[in-house]
Amino acid sequence: MAADWFDYSPTPAYDGTTRLPAEYITMSDGTKLSAQVMLPTDADGNAIEGPLPVILTQTGYNKSASGYVEGFAFNSFLVEHGYAHVTVDVRGTGTSQGTWEIFSEREQLDYQEVMDWITRQPWSNGRVGTWGPSFMAITQIYTAAWQHPAHQAMFAIVPMADAYRDIVFTGGQVNVGFIPLWIGLVTGLGLIPAHPSPEALSTLVEHVLGTLSYDIPVILQATLGVNGQNYDGPFWRTRSPIEVADQVRVPTIIIGGLRDIFQRGEPMLYEAIKPHATTKLVIGPWSHLDASSGAGLPADGVPDLNHMALLWFDRYLKNIDNQAETVPAVTQYVWNEDRYVRSADWPHPQATAERWFLRGNGSLSADPPATDEPARHTVQIPVQNLCSASSAQWTAGVLELIPLPCFQGQNSINELPLLGAVTYTTAPMDADYYINGPIQADLWLASELGSDGSVAVRVTSVSPEGQSFELTNGLQTFSSRALDPERSRRLDGESIQPWHPYTAESIEPVEPGESTLVSVEIFPSSFVIPAGHRLRVAIASSDFPHGLPPITDLLDQVLGIMRIDSTAARPSSLVLPVVPVDALGRDDDSTG
């Protein structure tokens, strides 16, 4: 039997928690960062001043405002079990001084200096673990890359890996759903002072000026496609934790979601860290908001996130022999299996590549197309698929709160011909069909009228009643189709996860009406197409608000007709990572 989870729930060591007054940490350039410490208390409410192992959270969401949402900026559960928890507003956010420059090199240096400060405090025993979701998970990767001797463990909940490909410019298009929402959230919370004072007023002015001089120009330049902000390069590489993840040396748990905004990057971070440190990956059926709290856990023997984190920190910060290192390497929720499944690694060690072909009659078949199969067409509309699981995903789960089936995964409305979708569907499956990993669509496409185009690809599961449930999706601009074969992932000799450079030099012109091969990265997932259900590929010309071409490119992609060719000479297809059904461990709920 393979490794499995167990519930770790020791009795709290202390009766409650208290917060010390906020204080400033002075960085080497003179900028002051605001920090606050939560300590455990005894039965009389007196603070236990240590020394204690420390949990560090570095946030952009203003600890003075967000810190009163339990488990967001502070974790009282961990503190009651014998930890000090310090939370720091990164520069230019919350009540810290400076200008927020979105994970800049200077901000990353601050993370190291904060670690130095922690080791000098009376409540610290010099052993530090990092914890937190989203922004606070991203800061953890950069902190760990410094290899500070005090840093002993990391619990990163929904971290980003590749800023450009994961979120900001998926497929070469601007994410107009999440990026303005995120920048606005950080900026808005940074305008809330902790208390009125001359220093607070000075900090507020700094934040306003920083927003006007830095944050807003970054958004505008990306949206307009000017100053190179719409291409991958040093700016986005600096802000991509995957670039430093191989420098991490601390035991790490990464939490991800099948509909998280960082769905693509979370398993990549696991891959980058695991050769250098004990690393675990847990992926739930979550959008970003639900993933941040591990909604629905415990389930299927998988504990909730607090119990996971306590298990991890007690093992690596307190040296308690609690067998934390034995839990499964990978735990994933599987759509249509509707439970968590354990495996030995990611990508799944038993996966093999299978190619399915798009056919002129709308079928999806293991047989290649014939010589003269007809092309299919759809109108190029830049705002398709607004009511979809993708829209809910790329607004961090906000739209998921609206009780409409299309935001919960039902994709049938987006497959209506009047809305521009073209679908390709298999015959009903003879047996359950298990997919686990990244997916690639190789499509022969043409823009009949425009000088560029974009394509959105959805993979869905179709029930015997005809309901189509979205499983995962991908997006790609035609002119950004160039590939780097050295960085593209292959399985059984097939490319299964394309890597596009997205540089100005890699742009390839598109001739109106000329068919060209476009490889689309469809983000990794885990799902079963049950016997009697069908696998479907739904193709449209856009996925709004997940992606919108920069304004400078928009006119090249609108009011055209996209042609999808699939013939013996130009065989459009889908490559899937197929795993044997017995790897689902249905009998003993475990896999090897």
Automatic annotation (TrEMBL):
UniProt keyword annotation of Membrane present: no
Residue ranges of every copy of the Xaa-Pro dipeptidyl-peptidase C-terminal domain listed in the record: 310-575
Molecular functions (GO terms): dipeptidyl-peptidase activity
InterPro entries (UniProt xref): AB_hydrolase_fold, CocE/Ser_esterase, Galactose-bd-like_sf, Xaa-Pro-like_dom, Xaa-Pro_dipept_C, Xaa-Pro_dipeptidyl-ppase/CocE
UniProt entry keywords in alphabetical sequence: Hydrolase
NCBIfam families: CocE_NonD
PANTHER family listed in its UniProt record: COCE_NOND FAMILY, PUTATIVE (AFU_ORTHOLOGUE AFUA_7G00600)-RELATED, PEPTIDASE S9 PROLYL OLIGOPEPTIDASE
Protein name: Peptidase S15
Organism: Abyssibacter profundi
